[in-house]
Design the sequence.
């Protein structure tokens, strides 16, 4: 059982927890034969819809704090359809130790399976340090929709230090390897080449073997007041990535909604 460890040693303080979700096809619908809670993660299966299984990841304590090592391991087996969400925002907070927190999400999607990962925004609170990774491993016939949003600092406070690393493989081949760093010692993170003074960022990734791949990049937003966003095809794969920055999460969400509508109309 995971629990908070007193920070007598910064390298061994905090919570160690890995929650696991496995979805499998059962006739005309998808079931979830494995849901393993761990640490702050409480997994709740919600009402299925149109053959999709749906799971909500609920946090039962303040996390991630400094020193925490948290992970989610999510798998959609062959022909399964799985949607995973979180009901509330995740807030990275400083802990009793100066050690960084880590939050690793691993998504595995088998042949002809579909997975959507739609967490609420991640908020980087002042004084926190969080290293977040997301690794996506797709079979060639699999599809994934991933959407993530970040807010740098709560109201009237500077952000903590946040790094994110998104890695996507399809059939064992690399599709995307993207690293971002905000706040703290990250160089020029709020300069014109990165956020340009904005406090919110987000990205939307869609990989689907049925997508057309001959569309050029689309500039969705280019207004300092409303935010900036671009939708870009990824080379040699049926995949598109939208990235957005704006002053508020609401603006980022609208830009990503527009990007998703463009993809659906392709």
Sequence:
């Amino acid at each position: 059982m995971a629990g908070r460890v007193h920070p007598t040693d910064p390298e061994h303080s905090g919570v160690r927890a890995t929650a696991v979700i496995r979805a499998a096809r059962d006739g005309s619908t998808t079931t979830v034969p494995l849901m393993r809670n761990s640490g702050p993660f409480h997994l709740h299966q919600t009402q299925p819809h149109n053959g999709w299984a749906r799971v909500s990841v609920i946090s039962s304590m303040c996390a991630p704090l400094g020193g925490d090592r948290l992970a989610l391991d999510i798998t959609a087996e062959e022909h399964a359809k799985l949607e995973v969400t979180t009901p509330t925002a995740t807030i990275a907070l400083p802990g009793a130790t100066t050690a960084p927190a880590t939050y690793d999400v691993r998504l595995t999607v088998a042949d002809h399976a579909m997975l959507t990962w739609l967490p609420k925004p991640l908020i980087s609170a002042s004084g926190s340090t969080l290293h977040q990774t997301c690794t996506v491993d797709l079979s060639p016939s699999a599809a994934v929709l991933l959407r993530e949003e970040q807010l740098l600092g709560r109201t009237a406070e500077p952000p903590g230090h946040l790094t994110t690393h998104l890695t996507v493989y399809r059939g064992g081949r690399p599709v995307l390897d993207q690293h971002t760093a905000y706040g703290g010692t990250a160089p020029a993170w709020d300069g014109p080449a990165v956020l340009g003074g904005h406090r919110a960022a987000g990205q939307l990734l869609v990989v689907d073997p049925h997508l057309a791949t001959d569309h050029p990049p689309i500039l969705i937003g280019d207004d300092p007041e409303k935010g900036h966003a671009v939708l870009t095809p990824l080379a040699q794969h049926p995949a598109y990535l939208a990235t957005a920055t704006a002053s508020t999460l609401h603006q980022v969400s609208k830009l990503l909604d527009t990007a998703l509508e463009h993809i659906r109309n392709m």
